[in-house]
Specification:
Blueprint lengths: L1 E5 L6 E8 L4 H4 L8 E10 L2 E14 L3 E11 L6
Antiparallel strand pairs: 1-2, 2-3, 3-4, 4-5
Amino acid sequence: GEWRVEGEFPGEKVKFWVDHEGFTGEETGCDIDIEPGRLFLSANTMGGSFGKGGGMAIEQYRFYVRKERRMVGVFTHKQIKD
């Protein structure tokens, strides 16, 4: 994947994406399956640190014409100590 920071403090966000092999509703405990592709994530930053979590989205075509991002959930994160 890739990542970037957009905006300026205090409204900046880190945005990144990762490729995935798909998720079933059984695996996630949700009522939808997510087809393989890219998962787009974004979170607010507080200067040099992250907020508590952020949103997840996928890209899909609406009516086979227009590509849109659809929210599919939220995430939380933890700092990994060196």
